[in-house]
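Progress against Task 2.4 (sequence-to-structure conversion) is shown through the following example record, which the project officer requested during the mid-term review.
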Amino acid sequence: MAPKRSAAQPVVAPQATTATNNIASPPADSAAVTPAAKSSSTKTSEARGGGIHQTVHSIVRHYQKTTPQRTKLLDAFMAFLAVVGALQFAYCILMGNFPFNAFLSGFSATVGQFVLTASLRIQTTEANKSEFPSVSPERAFADYIVGSLILHFFCINFIN
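Structure tokens generated for the chain above:
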């Protein structure tokens, strides 16, 4: 362990390079960093933040241009189901779960409907036509309706 320096001793940053490697040694103290170096690191972090913002913006623009309206509607419904599920779970944590079967029924209905909607989205997306060649969008929607009816029948019966 190196001895501690007193406040009276000046800090000298080595600037020399060795003959074997041409890399300058880093400064020994953060105070030895010049303001120009600090501003360049700030610019780099700002560029990264701008890059992330620009990337997210381009993803949203691409989604809005290329995604059909029907798929956007399914995505909005899935986002709604996720929010409802999160609110139900938060209510259960904060207020208690006295009629636990009611919480389980409501939460499982939300999760089940989310899964059924995700399945419908996958089956009706144009990019997945090769995965489901024999399933038409009408057939996928009919399966979705039947699955939803069965799910909600069990959830309502579970409430008592």
